[in-house]
Amino acid sequence: MTTDNHTLVLGATGKTGRRVVPRLRIRDVPVRAASRSSATRFDWSDPTSWDAALQGVAAVYVVPPTVVGPVHDFVARAESAGVQRLVLLSGRGADTWGDSTFGLDMRDAEDAVRNSSLEWTILRPNNFAQDFDEDVFHAPLLAGELALPAGDVPEPFIDLEDVADVAAAVLTQPERHAGQIYEMTGPRALTFAEAVELISRATGQLITYKPVSAAEYAAGLVEEGLSESDAHHVADMFVMMDRGLLADTTDGVATVLGRQPRTFEDYVVRIAASGAWRR
Predict the structure, then answer these.
(1) Given the DSSP bridges, would you call strands 57-62 and 40-41 parallel, antiparallel or unpaired?
(2) Alpha-carbon gap, residue 261 to 267, rounded angstroms
(3) Which of 157, 14, 7, 163 lies closest to 90, judged by CA?
(4) Burial of 228 by CB count in 10 Å (0-12 exposed, 13-18 middle, 19+ buried)?
(5) Could you give the 3-state DSSP secondary structure of residue 41?
(6) Residues 6+ apart with CB under 8 A from 124
(7) What is the DSSP letter of 188?
(8) Mean pLDDT for the chain?
């Protein structure tokens, strides 16, 4: 094993990174798992942690920070360190978000990667199915009601397992995916009300969906402890989604993996069996 062929996985303890790491290891890929709490420390807010993580690295799986700016400096460091390619996790249809305040961090990261001298691939998934059990929607579901400003526009939720499968394939098959942007969705779109109904049925528990305005939702987030700017940033995502620009499905997963993405029903059955929604 040489010392300059490692794949650096940023956010290695996060939702996608912790799934990508074992997929690479099972392929016998030398992996350097990095995060603020990993043996290889990496912190976007501390550039002194970057150079050691980049030593001997050929490819990087980049999960960008939630602020604008750092990815440009990181890419420059990666170029100097001899990195050959970058795989960036972004968001579905990032170049269609227009003047929305949502996703400025992801769009900035895309600019940094695309303007670099390195080979790059960009992954743009829709909202994750796992948001219902690992993230912001989980606690409201346990309380019995999910209130969102989502309207009736459907969302083709993507399973994080598919995102990780695609990321691992792209990282290990660079000749096939250089310069590509993959828009990634689940196999069909469903409304948040339909998603909650499926979870309710699978768990045998009464869980309801309540539509609220973006202003009401943001105010609720502030009451829960978010800053006003962060709360409005999250609410702006739903305003942007309500335009319907992200409601269609794509063939990104099938293009990379040669199979259809997992269904939302498959996700719901799997997570219900795990007990994650048990009260």
Answers:
(1) unpaired
(2) 11
(3) 163
(4) exposed
(5) strand
(6) 90, 91, 92, 93, 94, 181, 182, 183, 184, 252
(7) S
(8) 95
Place of tokens 């335009």: 243
Q: What is the pLDDT of residues 120-146, one digit of tens each?
A: 999 999 999 999 999 889 999 999 999
Write out the two tokens for 27: 């392929």
Write down the pLDDT at residue 71: 98
Classified as helix, coil or strand, 152 is coil
Q: How far apart are CA 49 and CA 21, in angstroms?
A: 20
Q: Which two tokens stand for residue 164?
A: 């990780």
What global pTM score does this model have?
Answer: 0.95
Mean pLDDT of 190-196: 97
Say if residues 163 and 90 touch (Cβ distance below 8 Å).
no
Give me the residue label for tokens 């920070």: 65
Instruction: Output the six-digit token pair for 206.
Output: 């009464």
